[in-house]
Amino acid sequence: MRIIVIGAGIIGLTTAYYLSHEGHSVTVVDSGEGAGQRTSKANGAQLSYSFVSPLADPGILPKLPSWLLDRNSPLSFRLKADVEQWRWLFAFLKACRASKAQRTTAELLQLGMYSRELVHELVQKERPSFQFESSGKLLVYQDAKSFAGAQAQMAYQASLGCSQTLLTPRECLEREPALEAIGGTIAGGIFTPTEDAGDCLQLCVELERIMRSGPKPVTFLYRTTVENLRGEGGRIVGLHTSQGDITADDYVIANGIGAQRLARQVGINPYVYPLKGYSLTYELGPDSQAPRTSVSDLRNKVVYARLGNRLRVAGMVDIGDTTASIAPHRIASLRENVRTFLPHLNPAGEPEAWAGLRPARPDGKPIIGATRFRNLWLNVGHGALGFTLAAGSAGLLADQIAGRPARIPASVFGLQGAGGETSSSESRKNARRSAA
């Protein structure tokens, strides 16, 4: 079967990889210059299979007023006259319920564990070069109240099969000596041995290399913008692109924040909205005291991941800034967090700053699966967990397209359960428009 995958980030490329291994003739279409050039380019680099709790959690509600008034807080908000933003925010607040957050966490943990299994299979089979390390992850708490709350979450995740260890402040330093300078402020930590780290951009490039040289090479069409999908008789009959019309048997939308525009054209609303994040990448020198283990600073919501002789630092959530431009005050705040948390980092030079747009859904769950069009599929809305969940999501979608039972029932991440379809009248109107 001929399948077009729209998107060459980590979600689109893993999707193409698993579909090509099913024997399909796959074409990847992307408007960028190459693989992984947008959200996948310089993300947090952590493969955090066990840390998938959604942003939509009741614990965030008491913090919102102070965060929204502080321009240097982990979360900032810019209100806009934008119906999509308001609809997303309303759905987000509606999802901030304990029962909903727990159910979503349990479902994402299933997907995270499946993704870990597939990542390790991929690494063993293909030997991609992307600074992959299985060094575990250390959560560092500098507040006793937050640490106590984390222990309750740890107990819940243990009931779902997560293997985690509670650490004293001294044990945190034994696990990660680079934190010695802040040892007096540490209330405790949680270590999870199953977590990995790697360079997402490098993996994207490696996946393209692997797919180009396979027994059934995948075709890549870059600098090609999909302008609309043409629907007819319950099927997608083609794509109109900046380079002309192209057709296939099946189509997969997997292009991050761009998925919202394309899906809306044919009457589907996946509720994907961009949440902006930032990262710094430090080159390390001979005197650098940088962590070897992936570390999360829970006070400031900042993550640290070692990539060979580099350190990736990522954090922040900006709602309402839908550009990929770098806000100087946000980067300055992130740099200050690094100076406070790792005062003896001693990098080899100035860090490289980056900003990207995470394609987030209100409840934190991606949509993976079928649509009302018989040959149109979605793999969208992974937010900050795209790198972590990519392999598992692609595996689930490949199973669904093949029509075989999947590891996780299709309904768990399906479009209908996510409330992603628009009204039937709007669907017909948009379908007619796209077919015109």
Number of helices, counting only DSSP H or I runs of 4 residues or more: 11
Strand tally: 20
CATH architecture of the largest domain: 2-Layer Sandwich
What number of domains?
A: 2
Please tell me what the overall shape is.
globular
- Top-tier CATH class of the largest domain: Alpha Beta
The largest sheet is: 9 strands, mixed
Share in helix = 25-40%
Structural class: alpha/beta
**Share of residues in strands:** 15-25%
> Would you tell me the overall average pLDDT?
92
What is the gyration radius calculated from CA atoms? 21 Å
Which stretches are poorly predicted, pLDDT < 50 over at least 5 residues? Answer: 422-436
CATH fold topology of the largest domain: D-Amino Acid Oxidase, Chain A, domain 2
End-to-end CA span:
26 Å
Query: For this structure, what is the CATH homologous superfamily of the largest domain?
Result: D-Amino Acid Oxidase, subunit A, domain 2
Short characterization:
Strands 4, 5, 6, 7, 14, 15, 16, 17 and 18 form a nine-stranded mixed sheet that branches. This protein is 33% helix and 24% strand.
